Amino acid sequence: MAREINPKDTARASAYELWMKAPNPMVTFFKTFDVTNLIKISKKKNLKFNMLLDYCIGKAAADVKEFYILPVGEKLMQYDTIAVNTIVKNKEGEVSSCDILYTDDMEKFNQDYLKYTAQVAETCQDQDLSENSMVIGTSAIVDTEIDGAVGMNSGIFNNPFMIWGRYRKKLFRYYLPISFQFHHTQMDGAHAGRFLENLQNEINRLK
pLDDT-based confidence at 87, cuts 50/70/90? Predict the structure, then answer.
């Protein structure tokens, strides 16, 4: 469920005044993650690497309250749930968008991921949960290794967004640079930093 809230009644009141009409309110952080544990789980349990990473992203974000609000147009919206978006190659060779509702139950998240990505690939119809959930966008550029990416500021799509390429192997560990873009009205650098630290911790502790 999503509802409009008065910015003055939130901890983001001053950020709303400062950044809502700024020419470029988006901030991008770059961080390299150790994803060795995800690689091991993926191979051992035959689970998709991107599903595991999307699950960890949702879990890391769920503990940061700023992820439950989002500037939409000139409004500040409050959400009860978080979804993680993934880009799907459809049967026509193009890409479609698929939102997966985050749940702490990884088995349920995996079932939903497999079900809806397959459905989107077959129908070429996006699955959009943005009316009811705060969606974290993701894009995996699997054709190459990248050091990071800066998304566009359209003034329409203000959602946090994460981009990564292929992971890299160094000795016996695997590393993945990820860029994280967010709207400054939604959160400050400290909140974004806590989320990225949460993400590495969730990757490490996943079983």
Answer: very high
Burial class of residue 132 in the structure, from the number of CB atoms within 10 Å of its CB (0-12 exposed, 13-18 middle, 19+ buried): middle
Is pLDDT at 98 greater than 90 in this prediction? Answer: yes
Query: What token pair was written down for 145?
Result: 């290794």
Q: What is the DSSP string of 102-114?
A: --S-HHHHHHHHH
Angle at 104 (CA atoms; ends 53, 142), nearest 5 degrees? 15
- Read off the pLDDT of residues 184-196 as tens digits, 9 standing for 90 and up: 999 999 999 999 9
Tell which residue, 195, 180, 150, 187, has the closest CA to residue 76.
Answer: 187
pLDDT tens for each residue of 142-185: 889 999 888 777 767 899 999 999 999 999 999 999 999 999 99
Contact 92, 76 (CB under 8 A): no
155 dihedral zone (left: phi>0; alpha: psi -120 to 50; beta): left
SS3 195: helix
Burial class (CB in 10 A: 0-12, 13-18, 19+), 58: buried
Percent of the chain as helix, strand, coil, to the nearest 5: 35, 30, 35
